[in-house]
Amino acid sequence: MKRLANNAVAVFVIIAVLLLIIPLSPFFLDVMIIINITISMVVLLVSMNIKEPLEFSIFPSLLLITTLFRIGINISSTKNILSNQGQAGAVIKSFGDFILQGNVIVGFVVFIIIVLVQFIVITKGAERVAEVAARFTLDAMPGKQMAIDADLSAGLINEEEARARRIKIQREADFYGAMDGATKIVKGDAVMSIIITAVNLIGGSIIGLLQSGMEIGQVLQLYSIATVGDGLVSQIPALLISTATGMIVTRAVAEGSLNTDVTKQFLAQPRALIMTGGVLLVLLLVPGMPKVPLAVGATALILLGYRLSKKMEEEVIVQEATSNRAVEPSGDVPEEEYFRDINNIYSLIEVEPIEMEFGYSLIPLVDETSGGKMIDRIVIFRRQYAQEMGFVIPSVRLRDSVNLNTNQYVIKVRGEEVARGEILVDHYLALEPTEPGGDIDGIETLEPAYGIPSKWILPENRDMAEAYGFTVIDPLSVMVTHLSETIKQHAYELLNRKEVVNLLENTKVQAPELVDEVIPGFISHGNFQKVLVSLIKEGIPIKDMETILETIANGTVPGEDILSTVEKIRGALKRTITRKFCEGGQLRVVTLDSELEKELMSSLAKNEQGTYLAVKPDVMQRLLSQLGEEVKKFQELSQESIVLTSQVIRAHLYQLLEQFYPSVHVLAFNEIAGNVQIQAIDNITM
Fold first, then answer.
1. How would you classify residue 539: left for phi > 0, otherwise alpha for psi between -120 and 50, otherwise beta?
2. Which of 8, 245, 472, 474 is the most buried (most CB within 10 A)?
3. Phi/psi zone of residue 470: left (φ > 0), alpha (ψ -120 to 50 degrees), beta?
4. Predicted TM-score (pTM) of this structure
5. What whole-number percentage of the chain has pLDDT above 70?
C-alpha cells in the first residue's frame, strides 16, 4: 500500500494515457468526470491560498497531467456518444439537460460563450502574463545575484542565507520559464475542446441519420444534449485550471493568501467604500433604474465604510492611550489623587531616546492593521545598523500628533525635534537627475534626507519619470530613509552608559579576561563611553570591540587624554575604516597642500580643555571656501566627502570643520590600508 502511495502520480498518469485507448462504460466515465472536477477545484483553491508561486512549484507539471487526463476523458466520452446513440453517462446528460432547457440554440450559445471566455480572456491573458513574467525574471537575475553578493559582503547575511536566496532565485526563473510553456498547453486544450465538440455533433448527427434512421429533429435533440454536456464537463474543469494558472502567474506581491489579502486590503480603505455607496445613491436618480438593489447596496457600503473608519480611529486612539498609559491617570481615579504618588510624577519627565510623530494621513503607513510596513522597515534598519556599526539603536517611539499638519512628520532625539518632513501618501517622490530626459508634472520639493531637488508625482506618471532618468521612491521609503539618516547623524547621542555596559557584557562572552583587565584598570566606564562616542560620531564602526580594548590595553599611557586614545584606536581599525569609505579598491579624497598643513600645525594651541587649532581668519576663510567647492564635487560623484591629512592634525581639523561641514570625514594617512589606491581629486592650498 505504501509503495502504491509513493507512486500515485505515476499510476494517475498511466490511467490518463489508458483513457486515450480503452473505452469506458458510462458508470466509470461518470467516476472519472467527477474526479476531474474535484482535482480542478482543489488546484484552484490551493492557488488561492498560497503566499508566493514557489509554494506551488509543481503546478506546471500538474497542468500537463490534468490536461492529459481531461483529454483522455474527452476521447472516452466521444466514443460513448458516437457508439451508444448519445448515451455517455449520467453526468454528461445532466449537464446537457440543465444548460439546454429544451432549447438547442440557447444551449449552444451558452456553451460557445463559456469556451470563448476561457480561450480569449483567461487563457490568453494568463499566457501573456506568464511570458512577461518569465522574461522579466530572467532579466532581473543578474541584479538579484549582485544584491545577494553585496549583502553577503556587507555582513547582512551569512553564506547559508546567501545560498538559500540564490537557490530561490534559480527556482523562480525555472518556475516562470516552465509556466510560460505550460500556458501553451492550456491554450491548446481550449482549441481541442472546440474541435471535439464539433466532432461529437457532426459525427453523431451523421450516425443518427444514416445508420440509425432517426429524424433530423430527434437526432439534433439527442446528440445536442450529449455534445453540450460533454463540452461542459470538460470545460468547467479546464476553466478552473485556467483560472488557477492566471492566479499563479499574477501573484507578484503577496503577504498572505488571496482571500486574506483581498479582505485586508479592501477593508483597509473605508473611504473608497463610502464613495462607492455615494455613487450608487446618485444612480437612484436615473429614471428606470432598479431602486431597491441600488438603495440596499448603497446603504450597506456606506454603513460598512463608516464603521471601518470609526474602528480605525478607535484603534489609533487606543494604541496611543496604551502607549501613554504610564503617564495618564485612569478614568476612575481623579487626576489630583493620581499624582499624589510621586512615582507617577516621575513618569511625566521620562524622555524617549527617539520619537517620531506624524499627521493623521500618514497613519496608514505606520498602522500594521491597515497594512503599514513602517515598523518592519525600522526593525530591518536597526538590524543592519547593528551589524555594520556594532551599536544597537534604541526602540523608536511612533505616535500621531494633532499638532502637525496631516502630511507632516517630526523626528525627535531626547525629546527635542531634530528633523521634520512632509509626505504625500498618494504620490511618488521623483529625484531629479543631473540631466533629465524630459520634464514631468509634479509638485516641486526637496528630498528630506539629502536635500535633493525632487517632485511629488502621481502614480500614473511613474513609468514616464523613470524613462526620463528620475529615481522614483514610494512615500514610505522616503520617510524611512529620512528617519534612518537622522538616526545615523545623532547616533552618538544615543550611546549612554547603560548601552556601553551592554556592549561590554556582550564582549565578555568571548573575551572576559580582556574586559576585566581594561575596565576599569586602564580606562573608566565614563572615559570609555567618550571614546566610543567619538568613534560613532565620525561614522567609525565599534563592532570590533576586542581590537578597541586591546589597543587601550597595549597603548594607553596613564593620564593620556581621550583624543590621543581615540587616534590610536582609529589606527588599529584601519581595515575597518578603509572598508567603510573605500569603493571598488579606490579611495577618492581631497588632500591639503604641504604649506597649508604646516600652517595648521603651527596654529595648534593648548588650554585647560586640551589642544585646538587657532587658525588665522584669512587662512580659515580660504580653507572653508575651497572645501565648499570640493564638497560639491563629491556630491556630483555620489560619494561621501573625505579630507586626507596627517595624523598630527586630523582630530583637530575635524573639530574645526565639523561646525561648518558636519558631513565631511577627515581621515589620516595611517588609517588607510596599504592595498587601497588613493585618488586625490583635488588639493586645497594656501
1. left
2. 245
3. beta
4. 0.51
5. 74
The neighbouring-strand residues paired with 430 are 455, 472
Give the largest CA-CA distance in the chain.
Answer: 123
> What pLDDT was estimated at residue 325?
44
Domain 576-686 superfamily per CATH: FHIPEP family, domain 4 (3.40.50.12790)
Does residue 240 have a pLDDT over 80?
no
Which residue in this structure is represented by grid cell 497531467? Answer: 65
The rounded Cα 608 to chain-centroid distance in angstroms is 54
Contact 565, 523 (CB under 8 A): yes
Domain 352-492 of CATH type 3.40.30.60: yes
- Which residues are within 8 A (CB) of 274 and not within 5 positions of it... i.e. 6 or more apart? 301, 302, 305, 306, 309
Q: β-strand 586-592 against 642-645: which pairing, if any? A: parallel
Sort strands 586-592 and 677-684 into parallel, antiparallel or unpaired. parallel
What cell numbers appear for 471 in the block?
Answer: 529615481
- Cell numbers 473505452: residue: 23
What is the pLDDT at residue 326?
A: 43
* Cell representation of residue 680: 586625490
Q: Which letter does DSSP use for residue 393 in this model?
A: P
- What residue type is 630 in one-letter code? E
Q: Which residue has cell 536566496?
A: 165
Q: At what angle do helices 374-389 and 475-489 cross, to 10 degrees?
A: 40
79 contacts 226 by C-beta, under 8 angstroms: no
- At 224, the pLDDT band (50, 70, 90 cuts) reads low
Report d(CA 177, CA 122) in Å as an integer. Answer: 19
Cα within 13 Å of Cα(682), Cβ side: 15
Cell of 297: 447596496
Cell representation of residue 473: 521612491
Distance CA 175, CA 509 (A): 45
Task: Give the H/E segment covering residue 605.
Answer: strand 604-607
161: CB partners within 8 A, 6+ apart: none
What pLDDT, on a 0 to 100 scale, did the predictor assign at position 381?
86
Instruction: Mark out the alpha helices in 251-347 (DSSP H runs).
Output: 258-267, 270-283, 291-323, 335-338, 342-346
- Position 335 scores a pLDDT of 61
- The H-assigned helical ranges of 324-435 are 335-338, 342-346, 363-366, 374-389
CA distance 267 to 264: 5
Q: Are 81 and 204 in contact (CB under 8 A)?
A: yes
Cis peptide bond N-terminal to 520, omega within 30: yes
CA gyration radius, the chain: 36
Crossing angle for the helix pair 617-636 and 650-658, to the nearest 10 degrees? 80
The pLDDT tens digits for 102-122 are 566 666 677 777 777 766 766
Q: Provide the Cα torsion 329, 334, 339, 343; round to 10°.
A: -50
Contacts of 479 (CB under 8 A, 6+ apart): 362, 365, 374, 409, 421, 423
The fold adopted by the segment(s) 503-572 is: Helicase, Ruva Protein; domain 3 (1.10.8)
DSSP H helices in 155-215: 159-206
DSSP for residue 550: H
Domain ranges for the chain: 15-257, 268-350, 352-492, 503-572, 576-686
* pLDDT (0 to 100) of residue 437: 78
The identity of residue 232, as a single letter, is L
Which residues are CB-neighbours of 599 under 8 A, at least 6 positions away?
615, 616, 619, 686
- What are the backbone angles phi and psi of residue 321, rounded to the nearest 5°? -65, -40
